[in-house]
Amino acid sequence: MASGKPQTRPSVRHPSHNHPLRGHKAQVEDEIICSGCDLDLIGASFKCSKSECDYFLHKSCFELPREIHHKSHPSHPLTLLYSPPYDHSTYTCNGCGEYGSGFTYNCSICQYNVHVGCVSMHETMKHEEHAHPLTLLYSSPSLEGHIFTCDVCQETMPRNLWLYYCQKCDYGTHLHSCVADEEEEPKKVGRGEGGRGVNGVKGGRSSENSELADMLKAQREMEKMQIALHLEMQRAKIAKKSRKHMLKMI
User: Fold this and answer.
1) Is 172 exposed, middle or buried, given 0-12, 13-18 or 19+ CB atoms closer than 10 A?
2) Which InterPro entries match (predicted)?
3) Is the pLDDT of residue 197 over 60?
4) Is 182 exposed, middle or buried (0-12, 13-18, 19+ CB in 10 A)?
């Protein structure tokens, strides 16, 4: 005779969270953010078994290895951390230059951090605006002292950030899409107790999208101003030398 008790789904444990997790299938309309990678969560995932705790993980984030060797940082292995290092609430990704508040692959020796999503970027990709495949580079292809500009958004790119590049055409783009950011409705954020919760408190990357975009834009504008000032000073020096040379010839 079958038991009348409701069957409970089996739970699993993950070192990133204090409570058991259960399998979950997230839908687009749920508008959930993964507590690991800070990205939209759709499909196979895990959620906290506690009804009052909004902690979610992609299945792929749940299965991330604790240590990897990555081409971007060949000197040391990278260790998976489940929260930002150095007792900070956020970190800056050395791959894309954007902030992160969830998991990171970290080198404690070099204070090097990479989003778990950036670590998984393909080594080649096809861009709709370019005829040839683009190759992932871990720094700017331009010579020291030269400026490299994204061929999609026309913004100056810092030398140390990753990019996709076509050597044949000297064509390069930011690591992630360069489309203009648009304001979005706040999404339900998977953070769990003591973490980045709902009600707009310390949301994931999507809920902070507008603020981070403004900060990055301001940073890039500052870099442009510094470059413009440097070029202006160089032009002034050249003009001064030219005047001195003309005076000597008189």
Assistant:
1) buried
2) C1-like_sf (IPR046349), DC1 (IPR004146)
3) no
4) exposed
Q: Do 176 and 209 meet the contact criterion of CB atoms below 8 Å apart?
A: no
* Cα→Cα distances 56→74, 97, 118, 139, Å: 32, 25, 19, 33
Interacting residues of 177 by C-beta distance below 8 A, sequence separation 6+: none
Question: SS3 string of 8-28?
Answer: CCCEECCCCCCCCEEEEEECH
CB 172 within 8 A of CB 166: yes
Strands 78-81 and 104-107: antiparallel
* 224 CB burial (10 A radius; 0-12, 13-18, 19+): middle
**Distance separating alpha carbons of residues 98 and 115, to the nearest angstrom:** 9
Check if the beta carbon of residue 93 is closer than 8 Å to that of residue 103.
Answer: no
Measured between alpha carbons, how far is 6 from 3 in angstroms, rounded to an integer? 8
Rounded alpha-carbon distances, angstroms, from residue 31 to 4, 37, 203: 34, 15, 13
Q: Which residue has the higher pLDDT, 90 or 190?
A: 90
The sign one gets for the Cα dihedral 49, 196, 83, 112 is: positive
Model-wide pTM > 0.70: no
Residue 3 vs residue 66, higher pLDDT: 66
CA distance 125 to 155: 21
CA–CA separation, 196 and 36 (whole Å): 11
- Please report where in the chains the tokens 């044949």 appear, as a residue: 168
